[in-house]
Amino acid sequence: MNRTKTIYKNAIYAIIFLLFPRATFAQNREMDSLKQLLSRTSSGTARVDLLVKLGLFEQSFKGGLRYAEDALALAKKIHYRKGEGASFNQIGNQYFAASNYPAALNFYFQGLKIREETDDINGIFGSYNNIANVYFELGDLDRALTYNFKSLQFSQPSNVYGKACLLNNVGTIYEKREQLDSALYYQQRSYELFNQSMSKYQYINTLNALGSLQMKLGNYELAKSYFSLGIKNGVEYNDSLNRASSYLGLAKLFKQLKQEDSCINYAKRAIVFAHRQQSVAQSVIVDAGKLVSELYVGKNDKEAYTYLKLAMDTRDSTFSREKTMQIQNMVFAEQERQKEIQEQKSKEAEERQNNLQYAAIALGLVTLLIGFFVLSHSVIANQKLIKFLGIVSLLIIFEFLNLLLHPYLGELTHHSPVWMLLVMVSVAALLVPLHHKVEYWVTHKLVEKNNRIRLVAAKKTVAKLEGKVS
């Protein structure tokens, strides 16, 4: 079974495959239909869903990624959380198809978090299965199995197709671990569900898996029938990739049966169909090339060399591709690191701006309060209160300047604690004398004002007393 395409089958939009077989002409027709519908849908949740679907059907990595990122941007703008989850999942699909597994895993987990928050059952089902696929490709079979079983817990009774695909994945893991009884159990369940499902897309994976298992168990005729059914399903859905696996399975079967001509015939067919999906079917070409080369040795050495060279060149290409993937993963990791740094800077800048505003508001209130006491013609203010408010205002001004100057001081002093301390002490040295002068002026004005108020009050009292005496 090839798992590279399994990311699409259990996602939230798996229903698409129930309606549109994955034949090339059907995909093109569906893409045209979706693009026309998108041109008539200017905004809203419907546009997000359309962009995600377009990303699903788009064959190129950049094209599919662009649709998914556009969907994510719009979903965030309109606060469509379910759409955000689907968009993150589809971005993960694009990176998975490009074999950038760390990036795929990162986006799958982001999508899963949102889907759990929004209680999107079908979405959670798809996310868990996609995460399992990544771990499978990374060779972590235990985690792959864990996430497949987590996905199974969210399987809805109506999602027969999705469950059939999922059980096929579970069976494949058990076969990889050489637990053939468990593998056969889950592949049989997958086979039964596919026979109940309206769609038979990806049914070929289960048929190929059953063929492989029966061949290992020595049931060659039964294995042959499964591989033949797989080829029939591959023709129906124009599935070159998995059809190549069916042909390779038959080639291996005929090799065990000592039917060399049939083995060579089917191995060559496997190579032909694998070449149509070379970027994801290189292992088929390597295995089939080696198989043909072995059978030609001593009979047709030229052909033996040709097919051995094909296998070796493809293997070298696979190695080169793995190196490219490693570079892509490092680039992605660095991009994510820079993104996190930028987000942290933006967050800090926003917090600093808010703190500056709070400090400015507090300083304004204290200044207004002092001004009220100084300018009021009726309120006698206590000098100790004014001194206290003056100290508070000094502290607020110092904090305000600290917040305002800190980013620039950091760049100027390269965040040296000693230099930053010296600069702030210098600022304080300038502020304190200024504070004393302002405090003296305010106190002087306050005494004058208080004296005037008391004088006016005394005159009024004297006038009242004189009036009573007369």
From TrEMBL:
PANTHER family assigned: TETRATRICOPEPTIDE REPEAT PROTEIN 29
Location in or out of the cell: Cytoplasm
Keyword presence, Transmembrane helix: yes
Record-annotated membrane-spanning stretches: 356-376, 388-405, 417-435
Keyword field: Coiled coil, Cytoplasm, Membrane, Repeat, TPR repeat, Transmembrane, Transmembrane helix
GO cellular component, one term: cytoplasm
Gene3D superfamilies per the UniProt record, alphabetical: Tetratricopeptide repeat domain
Entries under SMART domains matching the protein: TPR
Main location: cytoplasm
Membership in a protein family: Belongs to the Rap family.
Name this protein carries in UniProt: Tetratricopeptide repeat-containing protein
Pfam families per UniProt: TPR_12, TPR_8
UniProt KW Oxidoreductase keyword: no
Coiled coil: 330-359
